[in-house]
Records
---
Amino acid sequence: MNEYVVTVNSTKKNIKCSGNGIIELGDTTYEVELSKVNKHSYLLKIGNKIYNIVTNKANSENYSMSLDGRYYELTVRTLLREKATEYLKNQAKLSHHSEVKAPMPGLVLSVKKNVGDRVEFGESLFILEAMKMENDIRSNSSGVIEEILVDEGKSVEKGETIIVIK
Amino acid sequence: MFKKILIVNRGEIAVRIIKACREMGITSAAIYSDADKNSLHVRAADEAYHIGAAPANQSYLNIDNIIAKALEIGADAIHPGYGFLSENSVFIKKVKEAGFVFIGPSSRSVEMMGEKTAARKIMKKNNVPIVPGTTEPINDIDEAIKIAKGIGFPVMLKAAAGGGGKGMRKVDSEDKFREALERAQNESQKAFGNSDVYIEKFIENPKHIEVQIIADMHGNYAHLFERECSVQRRHQKVVEEAPSLFVDDETRSKITIAAIDAAKACNYFNAGTVEFLMDKDKNFYFLEMNTRLQVEHPVTEMITGIDLVKEQIRIANGEKLSFSQDEIKINGSAIECRIYAEDINNNFAPSTGKIIHHRLPSGPGIRVDRGIDLMTDVPVYYDPMLAKVITWGKDRDEAIARMERALGEYQVAGVITNISGFKWILNRQSFRDGTFDINFIENEFMPLVPYEWEKEISKEYEDVVSIFAALLKDKESKLKTVSIDNKSNNHWNNQRYE
């Protein structure tokens, strides 16, 4: 019996897999059957209900999925791993520190703030040009700018840290 | 008829034109950039020619290379699709000078309508109602602020050379005017090579209603009714439909006459679209004329039975319209959803990558016009639209039900798409009852971004996908214990050094 914690839309679900097609979710037991169509497409039977699920694995614990026109991003961890992650998260909270990242690949047209400036949540920080549109990137937290890692006129990749706020 | 058409575009519209060519027995020649070697339009065409590096200005916008290619391969006509060079009058002139037929209007018509302030003047003269504002570009900021105050804030700043929402800004108050103008001018310069911007009165909560028109070179004009495209985000259309639930017979008759008047005012031939804003009282104002095939042309094709691309090709070949106005009736209802590679929850960031899984929807009333297929790339260089799902029904409800089914069946993996967003849109009360306007996305959807909107539609399957995730993870942990392949014939495998 393996126990997993799945996080979807910020709710956590504990799921027990017994390995013989029996699943426990909360107080309910389900009979399940999983068939693989190809690497990204699966057929899941829960009881006699049929679900066609498309999935893509981002890394060892994050999956994206779509089902009947809906899209989901899920995190799945073993119960032990989940507890360890929670612990680390709580430690991190003690030192407040946030990074503003490029939400898409593009060109940094202008940076509107300087190191040491105080910024509020939602305040405009820099302009990122991507696919011919100028995108106003705003602060995800309030605080003081500790570091600006990219110069104006530079190309950045998606997820690259641009500004660090403390 | 033409023997070979060079298609100066990429993505779904290039594929759409290739299909029309094939039905007409015309050889289709595609062009592709370094980033598009592997694209569907290359796979679909009869012939494909490399045209340059990935950035559009070195490939799909490189006029001299394109003309040289057309000469080299013996094409006799050029179809521009939409975007890129489709509304570039210099290109049209060069195409003609080089001895090719341009499948579209004359360069003169494009010039007249392309410069938005000049177009406004022409419409005013021909009694087509326009939105109050300037008919000259802004060249003095203080004067412009004075005019804006005269009209009353909020006002719209629009690129004179514009389209597609680029170089367009709403300005709520005087103090925001300067920055907005700068941004609009910058964007306009980048997108169109022209920084002229003009001012229009901001119409409160209008609908976007446009009329498809088509004309031959013998003076025959026809309209193919209206489309409603009010579901937009930052002036980019997301959902389009025909006919509009909001337009009654009387309004339809008025607006289609105005559209034909607009087309006549610029001696238009070939397919074109006249866009209007319509207020709550069904007053309409000329917005702009798109002198090309429109992204959303399929909804019109679905309700009229006319193949607009084939009609375009015949018109360019000098033929008369294949139908008369009286023969065209609205049959049923059609909807189009534009599938973009974008991450709604991440500020709609474009998503790039490779399509690693692709399964199309099928069945009654469904059409997919697409630029993607299994193992094609979604490059960062171009528009993030992947495909258009179009459904037809005997009435709007059936078209919507079919759309929900189609989107449920459509499987795309490898990039993040906006498919799930439509589930929300199509079930929204104001969309269902037709009262939505062009601020629908901004006012009703955006407050729920990120993530909140998803909760409204995704609760139903949360348990299912969670069970699935746990099963996948569980399988994985078991696979790891049996990683040594004992049956292998590869003897090197047996000599393991640890």
Note: Residues 36 and 120 of chain A are 48 Å apart (CA to CA).
---
Amino acid sequence: MSDEPKLLESGPPAKWNRRSAFILAAIGSAVGLGNVWRFPFVCYENGGGAFLIPYLFAIITAGIPLLILEFSLGHKMASGAPLSFFKARRNSEWVGWLMVLVGFVITAYYAVIMSWCFNYLFQSFSLGWGDDPGGFFTDKLLHLSSGPGELGGLNWPLVAGLALTWIWIYFCIRKGAKSVGKVVLVTVPLPWLLLLILAIRGGTLEGAGAGLNYFLNPDWSKLLDPGVWLAAYGQVFFSFSLAFGVMITYASFLPRKSDINNNAVIIGLSDAATSFLAGLTVFSTLGFLAVGSHHTVAGVMESGPGLVFAVYPTILNQLPFWPGFFAAIFFIMLLTLGIDSAFSLVEASAEAWVNKLGLKRKPVLITVCVIAFAFGLLFATDGGLWWLDIVDNFINKFGLILGGLFECIVLGWLYGARKLREYANRDSEIKIGRWWDFLVKYFTPAILVVTFGMDLVKTVTEPYGGYPDWALFAGGWGVVAAVFVLSFVFMRIHANKNRAPAGEQGGGTGE
Amino acid sequence: MNRPNLLTALILLASSVAAGTGEPATTVGPLHPESATEASGRSARYAERLELVTRLGAEGADLEGSADALAAIVSDASEDSGLRAAAADLLGRVTVEVSGVEEPRALACALIEAALDGDPSGWTAGYLAELSRRKGGADRAALVVGLMTDERLAEFHQSLALDGRPALEAREAAVGVIGTIEGDWAYETLVALADDAGLPDGVRVAAIGALAPIGYDEGRAFLRGLAREDLSPSLREAVEEGLAAIDHTQNISLGAWIMFAVGVILLFGGLAISITISIRRGKKHVFSDESDGEP
């Protein structure tokens, strides 16, 4: 095979040195900023405590099954996402590239958000955001322009934070599974510990009960609303690092005998438990803010960056003792939550190119980091937040959802769900039955089609965020289209030179 | 539907039209056909105002600098109510869409005028409710009310206290809107209104209802103090309901406790079981995998 020497040039990929390293790395990838700033808000908006029922249902029927799907593929093919799809079905390599490219785009702006965190961390001990954290965020830190048309210049503190983030990412993954396995020993338990400290602190504040009541008080009538169930599936899908190629790549580093199914359960439940803990932390502290300022909890609630960069600093300002200390803890927690997710996406990209070109890992990794850094500079300008918002909305709604849909179609229908199920069961303590085939082939694709259809109709009929059409075309539809086009372009590069359907750990070509 | 609510609904309809979700451009015509048909017979001032409102209501019209003219229409009690409604909607848009303080100030003044006018059409409640519904509108509504407190609070309170006016419901709604604005100022204003024995009961009841969701411990103490006074049955009932609402807001409900337990047991319990299984299996071969980390 013409490609085999090339693949050997880069040497066999490093494997996880212990099972816990894989589990921690996968948990680290799944658990990110969204667990803190998205889940609590989604939960509150969709029935409070009652939302836990559709959420758990979505974990069982979509989250964990898709994790098993990706782990099985990655482990069986022992490759990054594009090569795994190639091995599964020759013409489906583009699905793997689509996933990797979506992850790459997300990393580019995710690193900018981490740059914001760095800047806030440096301000923490002096509470440098002052009495108006919201104003500090938009005016002093971001120098936010009037709209996407006014890009302004580079924001140097953000660029510095961005550079720091990328250097950090590079050193975390420079030796692949070997270095990641060591890094996650710190970056996964640490944010959990810090979150726990903040939860305990929040729970002891005046007004915590009011906040927790908002979060957990069940509104059972919401269970009759199909939108709530779709929101639960959306939360699970966005939160589990699915369809980025990350889980496929990480599973490819697993030793031959690995318990795929139980790993998926542990990782899925860990992500959900982190979200739940984050919800307790966020709402108990929001209750404190609401009571102190005579607002309802809903009145002070925000989701996304507004929560962590405007509302939370306001709360930190009002803490009765050690506000600077708790502020530092909060932003270190965000950074350590974010870094695993960021480097896992980069790892998926780098591994894909190492597989594709057969090059050594180091130059590929440096190239990926530099290109992503350069792309991220767009989001480190005065108008960067507008572009970040547009790109984030479109790439998640269309790139990610479609990636997941095509993944289910290729693996469930074309490759065969049964083969992957049997492979997953081979060394797993918990065996999955034929119901899994149904979920992968019919149920999850149906959910994704409905979600995609609703998002598409909404986006076409209501221009997102009131942005001008040209901005939505350039940063939204344009980026999504570029990701799709590049997926096919990358598939064509050296397509005949370094690809072969052989090389599965489980044997067989999959054709 | 009573009159103020009907007109508030018309304002909202006008706003949807002006926002481009309904008939474009001619906001006044579809709302009040009689105004359009009678327009030729009206005064030149009316025609000018109608032209202004129609022009500003067109999609993409530049609203900047139009606040004073619109406020003049809104404040003119003798003007056609349909035109006032359309102008009010545009003024709300000016306040939301145009940056700066002058436009909210103009709206605030118009609100005061309308309130002193007995607020026969529910302008006060309508404007503020509309503002608070729009993107970023809560801040603007708070700014408008803040401007009232700076400059014309006494007049505003006076308008609420006026008895015998036909707009009691509108004033009650205005008090409710203050509650939706939230914050320290809203709370203190509502406490002052609820505590003012000179105000009609309806206004005080509305103030108590509005302060309960944002009152917490302070609100509870205030209402308990109020309960010791000689109150009318309707006020006493409002105080009891307010206390119950505060308890409901502040204390974790049984349902919330149950869902907390469900979350902890299923998520953390499930995690513990999965990890236990993996450790048990690890003793067999996984943690001492024969591949020793190599394929």
Note: Chain A has one domain: 14-507.
